[in-house]
Every structure is written in C-alpha cells, then in structure tokens.
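Example record

The entry below shows one chain as it appears in the dataset: sequence first, then structure tokens.
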Amino acid sequence: METKNRAKGYLDKFLKVALGAGTVVGGAYVYSRLKEKQAVETRLERMGQIIDEISKEGAEKKTE
C-alpha cells in the first residue's frame, strides 16, 4: 500500500507541474496574440493617418 500511496503522491505532483506549465504556455500564447493584434491596429491607424495627410496635401494642391 505504501508504494500505491507514493505513486499517487508522485502523480499528484506531476499533474500540478504539468498544469502550471500549461498555464504559463497558454498565458504566454494569449499575451503574444494580444500584443500582435495591438501592433497591427497601431500600424493600421498610422497608415490611416498617412493617407489622410496625403489626401489633405492633394486637396490643397488642387485648390492652388
């Protein structure tokens, strides 16, 4: 019986470590996806600003 209890203890510790590692990997994945999404949104906003500036300059040149 002692061997069975010891095996349960090892299995319990292994599952806790595996769960912790899974949580860390999952959290890192979610964080990287959010960071990537924010980077894309920032680039799109900047591209929109550049397009607005170019259109304003084009409109100013047409009026001159």
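Notes for this example: Residues 2-63 form the longest helix (62 residues). Residues 57 and 64 are 11 Å apart (CA to CA).
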